[in-house]
Amino acid sequence: MPRTGWARGLAWGLWALTLLGLGATGWLDVLLRRTGYPGLAQVVGTGDTTTVVAAVAAATVGALVASRRPGHRVGWLLVAMGLSIAVADFTFAYTRYGLVARPGALPAASWLAGIANGGVFLYLSCTGFVLLLSPTGTLPSPRWRWWARITAAGLVVAFLTSVLAPRPLYPEYPDIGNPVGVGALEHGLGAVLFPVGALLVLAGLVVGAVSLLLRFRRARGLERLQLRWLALGAALSATAFAVSLTALVTDGWLFQAALGISVAVLPLATGAAILRYRLFDIDRIISRTLAYALLTLLLGLGYAAVVLGLGRLLGKGSSLVVAAATLAVAALFQPARRRVQAVVDRRFNRRHYDTTQTVEAFSARLREQIDLDTLSAELLTVAQDTMQPTQVSLWLRPKADRAAHPVP
Fold first, then answer.
1. N- or C-end of the chain: fewer Cβ atoms within 10 A?
2. 323-351, pLDDT tens digit by residue?
3. What is the pLDDT at residue 1?
4. Is 347 exposed, middle or buried (CB count within 10 Å of its CB: 0-12, 13-18, 19+)?
5. Could you give the CA distance from residue 97 to residue 104 in angstroms, rounded to a whole number?
6. How far is it, in rounded angstroms, from Cα 375 to Cα 378?
7. Cβ distance 58 to 85 under 8 Å?
8. Can you give the pLDDT at residue 190?
9. Burial class (CB in 10 A: 0-12, 13-18, 19+), 93
């Protein structure tokens, strides 16, 4: 089997394993709820779909990238991230059911207790390495190798100390021990290893984000476009996360939806950047996103103002207030959209705005200009300014040819 076919099969096999793990976790959650332990459920009945969304998004994007570009490390890291989330969730539900809800009901539950704790550090470390290696799949420079090795060492320390912890379910169930636990990890130098490893894994997330900023400052051409996609994904992810925090105390459904979007957007943007899908539309996407965000804000404020203003005159319960506000917003939508889009293009999509202005100005002069040489020179100038080609030329039919074959 060719190398690409082998990589495709492995990538999608790991993706299927991720979905299988999430499905098994849901089944164990149902069993936990039936036995009177709904608080230990991970997915089903909790309303928390964040980890499921993160696992599916990371594994799907990773499998797509890895199957198309097997040599790109970020694709495999995304697959590993999704799989590690699924493994962490499954082992958590498995050990809680087999050790707490129905002790002895599941085989080897005590042996897997530490893995549930270490799985968290696996997907956090994968996230840090995704940030560090995106979008090229390589380190920003050879000088970053020392940090990559330290981060990898921190992951090994944090994972092993979690797996070998003498009391893996402490402090909730301190009486449950670990058959592979090492007592020395609770005292002296052993007690320091876990926090040091955990801090290195968390530091990897921060350093990975900083490396993207440093890449963007030095990037040119295609890599800069790729990083713009990542920046857009990060901005949308941060916005959704801010919305989720705002909705935390008001609307549980909105909180979960916004948090799910927050964790899913970044893998999608990473995949788009690596696969170079419509990269050159990034300026247009950014300007449209900003335009519709501003338009939503302005129309929302206008709707509220109309409702409050007419509510004082006609009464808050009047249906005429809602109807009038809706009609006002509908009437203002298109004019407001055009004005907001023009303002955003002028500021954030300057090249598109300048191109439009140049073409419109040339079209206006075209109606008044009749000299062919002048028109030819202006046409070349417009093509050079708007499209910025490496070379531009204009071919005209000879006069004798035009006279022999006039255009009807």
1. C
2. 777 777 777 777 877 777 777 666 655 55
3. 37
4. exposed
5. 9
6. 5
7. yes
8. 77
9. buried
